[in-house]
Design brief:
With about 130 residues, this protein is α/β, with parallel strands linked by helices. The chain has 3 helices and 8 strands, in the order E-H-E-E-E-H-E-H-E-E-E. It has helices at about 15-25, 65-70, 85-95, and strands spanning about 5-10, 25-35, 35-45, 50-55, 80, 100-105, 110-115, 120-125. A 4-stranded mixed β-sheet has the order 1-4-3-2, with helices on one face. The protein is globular and about 45 Å long. The relative contact order is 0.20.
């Protein structure tokens, strides 16, 4: 068994697609119209057949309070592995990304937490 799909709830699928592709560097994998919304996934260009991230609309009434509570408590909605948190932090900051947590070394891992502009905090991490 392996993880096939994970999701983040986003407040605007077009804005999310731009951020997750143009800024974070993922590539669009699937886009299927579903009424006013879409089944919209992105993947890592390094693993195009790997785990997909669904950019899921946050229209359900339970989602916005859930997202707000996570952000208020500083809890990331997802965590993405990178080769070097410091380098990725610098690259993303130059692109105007806002960070809720700058790189922090915690034993064998280094993390940073960014704002995805769609209502979520996202953690980037690398292990030594």
């Amino acid at each position: 068994m392996k993880i096939h799909l994970s999701s983040v709830f986003v407040d605007d699928q077009d804005k999310a697609l731009r951020f997750y592709t143009d800024v974070l560097g993922f590539v669009k994998k699937t886009e299927v119209p579903l009424g006013a919304d879409r089944w919209l996934t992105v993947v890592s260009p390094e693993d195009p057949d790997g785990t997909e991230l669904l950019l899921e609309p946050d229209g359900h009434p339970a989602v916005k309070p859930y997202k707000s509570a996570l952000v208020a408590d500083g809890i990331p909605a997802a965590s993405f592995a990178v080769d070097d948190v410091h380098a990725e932090f610098n690259r993303l900051r130059e692109l105007g990304v806002r960070f809720a947590q700058e790189p922090l070394e915690m034993g064998p891992v280094t993390t940073a937490v960014l704002d995805d502009t769609c209502g979520n905090l996202i953690q980037i991490v690398h292990s030594k």
